[in-house]
């Protein structure tokens, strides 16, 4: 599971920029609406995916009032957000790098056209469902700034599946449904997570030269700029990325 950190850093930079543009709240409102629809319930207690998204939204400082108002409207049969659905696109970037794109859309034709355009423009190829997903494991991800014995012990007791030391900190991997439970357990013991998310961890990574790695990075950035796209995951070896990234 090594190699997640650099992509996580890039992702955090993007998240900060999105917040400035006011996109984070919109992103989570759409995700929450889609999760309520897919799970058949706007009650977090009865919908694990919805519960995870609400915790993720709170972690990203989405106002609780916004979340509560949306849940009440959805529970009351409000049509807002009822047409949103989660879709996943898979394919390859230059150099044979596998890419998974998670999106939330109310118009599949528009979204797939936009995603395909980016793939084609950047020398990639959009594949069928299942084309690359088998190369990844879905995991909860938590990063702490400290890597003390106490932090490792607390993570294990809370249910961590794997631990990795990284840049002086500690990366914690969990079952995706347990990531926010583990995070809260760590907070209760005095450890403040720097990052909490659900991600796709590549089973193996692809190493490229700097020039080809930069092509992949530009493709990822172009995909992330699409309004419907929520997350992009690749199996590019982070060591291939230029230092300035």
From TrEMBL:
Q: Which GO terms describe its cellular component?
A: cytosol
Residue ranges of the TACO1/YebC-like N-terminal domain?
A: 5-76
Q: Which SUPFAM superfamilies match?
A: YebC-like
GO terms for biological process, alphabetical: regulation of DNA-templated transcription
Q: Record's HAMAP family?
A: Transcrip_reg_TACO1
Family (UniProt): Belongs to the TACO1 family.
| This protein's name | Probable transcriptional regulatory protein Mgrana_00796
């Amino acid at each position: 599971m090594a190699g997640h950190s650099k992509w996580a850093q890039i992702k955090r930079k993007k998240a900060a920029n999105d917040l400035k543009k006011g996109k984070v709240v919109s992103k989570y409102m759409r995700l929450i609406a889609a999760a309520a629809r897919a799970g058949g319930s706007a009650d977090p207690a009865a919908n694990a995916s919805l519960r995870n998204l609400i915790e993720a939204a709170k972690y990203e400082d989405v106002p609780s009032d916004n979340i509560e108002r949306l849940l009440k409207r959805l529970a009351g049969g409000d049509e807002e957000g009822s047409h949103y659905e989660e879709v996943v696109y898979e394919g390859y970037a230059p150099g044979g790098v596998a890419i998974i794109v998670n999106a939330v859309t109310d118009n599949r034709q528009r979204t797939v056209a936009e995603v395909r355009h980016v793939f084609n423009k950047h020398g990639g190829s959009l594949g069928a469902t299942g084309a690359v997903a088998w190369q990844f494991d879905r995991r909860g991800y938590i990063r702490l700034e400290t890597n003390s014995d106490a932090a490792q012990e607390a993570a294990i007791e809370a249910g961590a599946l794997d631990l990795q030391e990284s840049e002086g900190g500690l990366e914690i991997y969990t079952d995706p449904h347990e990531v926010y439970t583990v995070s809260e357990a760590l907070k209760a013991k005095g450890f403040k997570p720097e990052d909490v998310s659900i991600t796709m961890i590549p089973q193996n990574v692809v190493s490229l030269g700097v020039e080809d790695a930069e092509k992949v990075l530009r493709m990822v950035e172009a995909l992330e700029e699409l309004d419907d796209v929520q997350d992009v995951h690749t199996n590019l070896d982070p060591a291939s990325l230029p230092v300035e990234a």
